[in-house]
Amino acid sequence: MNIVGETLATAIPGSVALLYPSLGELISERTGVTNLGTEGSMLSGALAGIAVTLATGNPVLGVLAAAVAGAACAAVHALAVVLRGANQLASGLVIWFLALGVTSVLGSPLNGKIVDPLPALRIPVLASIPGIGPALFDQNALVYAAYLLAPAIWLFLTYTRTGLALRATGERPAVVFAGGHNPTALRFSATTVGGALAGLGGAQLALGIVGNWANGMTNGYGFVAVAVVIFARWTPLGVVAGSYLFGVALALASVIQANGIGVNQYLLDSLPYAVTIIVLVLVSRFGRSNAPESQRDALSETV
């Protein structure tokens, strides 16, 4: 495998771990709900995935458990914000702190226990494409699902009645209600589904890449996901680009470290986050913002 293929092979799994929570946050924010607890959903998903896989020996059940755990965290946020009118930022941060503490306590007995990572599923013919074939088409099932998820979400939001209503909920909830949809139910459902996707991102980290549990192992992916959605102008294509940019920067840091190049370790650790945010900020300066009106109001109040 050439250097491009090796970089892609390293970049894609990390990109997918960010793509899931980013797409989940996109769905949630389209209805007007920002979830800073995405990091907590990822942590909960990672722990649940490892715990269930260790208990059953079945990684498929582990992935399902990760989605359920992530959804449960997000449902608490939706309950507080959508049904009780709590402050979105405060609720999300509280859920993150709570998840960080609970997963650290419950996950302590699992530290050092190894599970087999999700098996790679090689796609014949496509995996034989020189250079990029093995990197793109010799991955686990979560990676392949991510390939399909972004276009599926775009089609859903653009061409389905429910998707259009979901988008309109972040703009004109009264119009959505007059059209026969329940904005409250849409917001609650979108936030919960977003949490489930964040849980799958945690599963990709724990089961697809690492193969074990470590306290705080998501390393801020959930917060990066929120930033990616904002700077990608709330578009699925922008979210995909931002997530894969992060993965490439992460792979670049790994290559630098593996080759013993004299760069400070803390600088290397921050490289993927810095590169992703800088590029997305520059890109976001061009073109029309697709932010829901509720998000534009929230951002202007924050600034």
Automatic annotation (TrEMBL):
It is found in: Cell membrane. The chain crosses the membrane at residues 63-83, 89-107, 143-164, 185-207, 213-232, 239-258, 270-287. Its main location: membrane. Coiled coil: none annotated. Keywords: Cell membrane, Membrane, Transmembrane, Transmembrane helix. GO terms for molecular function: transmembrane transporter activity. It is a multi-pass membrane protein. Pfam families: BPD_transp_2 (PF02653). One of its GO terms (cellular component) is plasma membrane. PANTHER family: ABC TRANSPORTER PERMEASE PROTEIN, SUGAR ABC TRANSPORTER INTEGRAL MEMBRANE PROTEIN-RELATED. This is ABC transporter permease. It comes from Gryllotalpicola protaetiae.
